[in-house]
Amino acid sequence: MSNVEKFITEWMNDYNKGIEKFGAPQISLNIEDFEAENEEIYKKYLSQEFPDTNRQVKIYLGILGRKMRFSYMHAMQQRDWALLNNVIYQNTRFNLIYGATLASGTDHSNALWDLLAAFTCNNFDELSIFFPKNFPSGKGKFYTEICRNFMEIMIYHQDERFIETKVLADKFLAKKKTTWEKESILYLLALLERDATACSEHLEALCKAYQRLSEVSAPFKSFPLQVHGWYRFAYYVDPSFFIQIKQPKHWSFFSDFERWHKESSYPKGQLFYQYPEKMDLMNRILQAELPTIQLYENGNGRHTDFVKDTDRFLSELTLGIMNSSQS
Q1: Is the pLDDT reported for residue 298 higher than 70?
Q2: pTM, rounded to two decimals
């Protein structure tokens, strides 16, 4: 069974499970279902007057935007890899925007998961927005912080940060961590050292580790977006080195999609779906020039952490949308 067939089979399984458990499907099967559901959402929640635009933007993000996930099934059914590339772009752009408005009590490193998915459609433009240059280094409590540090060393050519981050990585790896966390860090170390053999081995291990991640739904075990993202990050960092890395042989790695990308010169995805006029705010959110994520200090002076400023991101995003609509 191909990746596409497995994806569609698992999507249908989830669809039927939703009906069995809740009496109604929890995911859409096609664009007609998606648009009918959006119409109901609009009537119930979005046609009202909102006290302020910030609140309206947050409601749109929280209720309407997340329904776009059906489009992966739509593209898989059509076997259209250009469409799939655009589906990834629209979904990951939404996820990054929405995630930046949700309080996590952590710094901005937790954008890593969605950034990796965005890399799969060659969208690297968001890197400087969600991992800005010259922000404080991650302290190494979470693997995302160490990965961010290593990524910034490469993309901003900050070699002076390597020793400090390597120490944090060694301490982290000495503890019992998940294979996904460990292999992600080791992959970046191999990429920094331009060790193509090690990069290839770690990508293979990441494919296997991905299958054990509880946060990944069954359909996406057949299309490990974040593994493709790690692979494509090497292309962004060093295209000449990238060609030396071997694609994983693991069944889940979507080689047909990668072949299409190579033959198409690695095109960046773009928005593929336009919401109807009465829901145009969602279009403007997705098309907006995004503000750079900001941090604030949180602590008692003795122990201070940097936390992403979700309120500021939402306010600046909303202001940009309003200004663009008036120009």
Answers
A1: yes
A2: 0.95
